[in-house]
Amino acid sequence: MPIPGYDIDDLDDDLRERIEEKKLDDLLTDEDRQRLKDGESLLDILSEEDIQRLLTDDD
Predict the structure, then answer these.
(1) Confidence band, pLDDT 50/70/90 cuts, at residue 58
(2) Of 19, 10, 6, which is closest to residue 46 (Cα–Cα)?
(3) For the stretch 7-38, what's the b/e string if a residue is b when 16 or more beta carbons lie within 10 angstroms of its beta carbon?
(4) Is the dihedral of CA 12, 18, 21, 22 positive or negative?
(5) Coil, strand or helix at 37
(6) What is the CA angle 48-49-50, rounded to 5?
């Protein structure tokens, strides 16, 4: 889902960096990882709640 004023690739890259910091294995299922390999973005795979948690969680 495009967000006006934001580059989807930049948002996806930012989420990937944060996920790596938050242990990718804890957030993505095997099906999610396959979807990433198939070319989907994290914005397509993650729920709105997961994205919000990634953006606000300081742990």
Answers:
(1) low
(2) 19
(3) eeeebbeebeebbeeeeeeebbeeebeebbee
(4) negative
(5) helix
(6) 95
Among 4, 23, 16, 5, smallest CA distance to 43 is for: 16
Tokens of 39: 């070319």
Give the separation between CA 30 and CA 42, rounded to whole angstroms: 14
Q: What pLDDT, in 10s, does the model give residues 1-45?
A: 555 667 777 888 887 777 766 667 677 889 998 998 999 988 889
pTM: 0.58
